[in-house]
Every structure is written in C-alpha cells, then in structure tokens.
Amino acid sequence: MTEMTYQSDLLRLLTTRGYVHQMTDAAALDALAAKEVVPGYIGFDPTAPSLHVGSLVQIMLLRRLQQAGHKPIVLMGGGTGKIGDPSFKEESRQMLTLDRLSENVAAIRRIFERFLTFGDGPTDAVMLDNAEWLDALEYIPFLREVGQHFSVNRMLSFDSVKLRLDREQSLSFLEFNYMILQAYDFRELSKRQACRLQMGGSDQWGNIVNGIELTRRMDGVEVFGVTTPLITTADGGKMGKTMAGAVWLHEDQLPHFDYWQFWRNTDDRDVGRFLRLFTDLPLDEIARLEALPGAEINEAKKILATEATAMCRGRAAAEEAADTARRTFEEGASGAALPTHIVTGGSIGIVDALIALDFAKSRGEARRLIAGGGARVGGEKIADEAFVIPVSGDVRLSAGKKHHGILRG
C-alpha cells in the first residue's frame, strides 16, 4: 500500500512528512482512522525535568495525530520510570526517587502543553501516568494473568536485549520486566481509553508488538503500532547530540537563543527533512525552501530555526532569538537573548569566563578550547589561557562558531 492510496488524513499526513518507519497492518489502521477518532499514545519516562530534541519527533507525532482529527495520549512513565527502559542502553539507569519522578512529570507537562491542545473533548490530548495502574499490581496475580503470555525465548531474541547480552553487559531482572510492563500499558490504555494505537521510535518496535499481541490474546481487541525512523543528521550523528550536550526543550535547561541556534546550524542536506518533521509549514513551501541554491539555503535555515523555536518556546521568544542572531552575526552588535554572565570587579579570566557561560565544563576543557583557537573576545581570537578580559560594559565571548555569550560589567 503506497501513501497515494491511503484513505485517512492521518496516514497521508504521517507518510508525506516522513514519520513512518514501520506499521502493523497499515490497511486496517487506515480504514479505522478514516471512519472514527483513533486515540493513540506514546510513552515518555520522566528521567529528567525536561525532554530534549531527541524526543521531539515523538512529540510532533502526537501533534500530527491531533492535527489529523485524532486523540493524543501522553503517557508518563511514573511506574516504568522506576525501572528505566533498557532498550539499546549499555548499562542500567540510575534509580530516581519518587519525589524526583513526580517533579519531572510536572515539568515535562509544560512542554507538551505547547505542542498539544489538552481538554475534555473527543480529540483533546490527555496526560496519564502508568503508576496509576502499575503501582497497584500484585506480583503473583500479575504473573498468572499476564506472564503466561510471554515467551522468554522470544524476549531474548529482541535486538534491544540481544545487544546487551552479546556485549556481555549486565541486564537485571528488573530491566528485563520492562517490556512486559510496557505491553501491559498498551492493554490497560485499550481498556481505559479505547486506545487503538501505540507510536514510538524504531527501537520500540519489539515492545509495541508485544503490547499488540498481549491485548489481542487477553481481550480480543485489535490494536496497532507505528514507529518512526531513527532521526540522524546528514553526517551520521544522532539528532540532538552536540559537543555542548543535550539540546533541551525546556528553557530552564537551555536559553531560547541557544535553541534557535541549534536549528540554524542544521546541515544543508537536512533542511527539507527537518522542516517537514519539526514545523507546520506547508509541503509546497518546504519544497521551495529546500531547493534554494547555494548560500540562499541559509534563509531556509533561519526559517527552520524560527518556526521550530516558535513551536517549542513561543513566537515572541523565536522572533527575539532571530533578531539577536541577526544583530550579533550580521551587524556585530550584542543581542539581548544571548546567555549572559554578570562580572564583578571589572575583569575575569578567560578560562573562568568560558566556564561561567557554560561553554566549557572544566578548566581543562576551557584550556583545550583556547589552545585550539576556538575562543574569541569581541571577535578577536585569544590564544593565551592566562588572558584577563576587562569588562566595563558588555563584552561578547565566543566559543567556536556556534556559541556566543555576553560578559556584562
């Protein structure tokens, strides 16, 4: 079945914008989505107070579900988060306290409220927490009712588990249970919310299939799965991983300007794909932008940066970041939205300044940056790690081509 033959707005939207890697029974899902509202969910483990850009394709997937007239369910893993998804991880996750999990869930909800419309209507988004049902499970009844439907032989064959075992890395029994609990989530959401669709990254395929089979075996209900491709950059890197660390969606973890700048620095080859995935611009406009010749592609990158930032941080923050970039890089002025460090005493050493603006995590890293020619003060390269920066007004400090900040006297 090609995308041209889909009846439903949902599958046409997902395929034309590049979200689909695998689907279970595409014809049946298409027919269902064409005739009724389909509640669909994605799970997120609250392991930090913010999600990062690596989760953005999943958030956008829920947004597309709602745009196509269906109901998004955001499932927070307050229960499974106590274990941590072992899929393709090299080691066990750090265990979080219950208070920290609760704080993280509250912080993450604020992100989703920017991408989705929450409420009580048939296509309004809802946020649930799987601790509601997982915390109440009794071990022996759960083993008898649910455990009988899982083959250990098959569980060991999943790539996510095999990878750990092939590397002779420890996989605890606690983590091994994760896929059973995720499958149980799908079955529980099917009962509680009439949820018919689970979506996730390509690494979740085995977990999603488990949930589909468990729901069919225990309740006789047909449910479906869709996975997205692994989003890598044109140079083969993982989406959202930078030298400076994760690109956080929450402004408490990453300033608006740095978020805007991350998108502005997109590789030329990724511009069209990222515009389709991470903005609401029409496809014909995207086709025009990605076809811009030579240096004109930079205009498309600025549009990508502004549109992606507006969706995550608000239109005002996006416009301010774009204006700051224009004034900083095109006019050489200091922009108000750049990360800023207040300097007392009239001066600061360059090593301390790089650390203060979070351009380096340690003195050693700062010295390596200086030795490599990556530190500039007011546009001038500084090669001396003992250099002291006089600060009476605003002084612009740059680390490489992509990171800029203000030292303020």
UniProtKB/TrEMBL annotation:
Q: Is this entry keyworded Signal?
A: no
EC code(s) of this entry: 6.1.1.1
Q: Pinpoint motif 'HIGH' region by residue range.
A: 46-55
Q: Name its cellular compartments.
A: Cytoplasm
Q: Name one Pfam family in it.
A: tRNA-synt_1b
Q: Which residues bind L-tyrosine?
A: 41, 178, 182
Which UniProt keywords are listed?
A: Aminoacyl-tRNA synthetase, ATP-binding, Cytoplasm, Ligase, Nucleotide-binding, Protein biosynthesis, RNA-binding
Residue numbers covered by motif 'KMSKS' region = 238-242
What catalytic reaction does the record list? tRNA(Tyr) + L-tyrosine + ATP = L-tyrosyl-tRNA(Tyr) + AMP + diphosphate + H(+)
Q: Where the protein is mainly located, per its record?
A: cytoplasm
Q: Which GO terms describe its molecular function?
A: tyrosine-tRNA ligase activity
InterPro entries (UniProt xref): aa-tRNA-synth_Ic (IPR002305), Rossmann-like_a/b/a_fold (IPR014729), S4_RNA-bd_sf (IPR036986), Tyr-tRNA-ligase (IPR002307), Tyr-tRNA-ligase_bac-type (IPR024088), Tyr-tRNA-ligase_bac_1 (IPR024107)
Q: Where is ATP bound in this sequence?
A: 241
UniProt-listed PANTHER family = TYROSINE--TRNA LIGASE, MITOCHONDRIAL, TYROSYL-TRNA SYNTHETASE
Q: Which family does it belong to?
A: Belongs to the class-I aminoacyl-tRNA synthetase family. TyrS type 1 subfamily.
Q: What does this protein do?
A: Catalyzes the attachment of tyrosine to tRNA(Tyr) in a two-step reaction: tyrosine is first activated by ATP to form Tyr-AMP and then transferred to the acceptor end of tRNA(Tyr).
| Record's protein name | Tyrosine--tRNA ligase
Native organism: Sphingomonas donggukensis
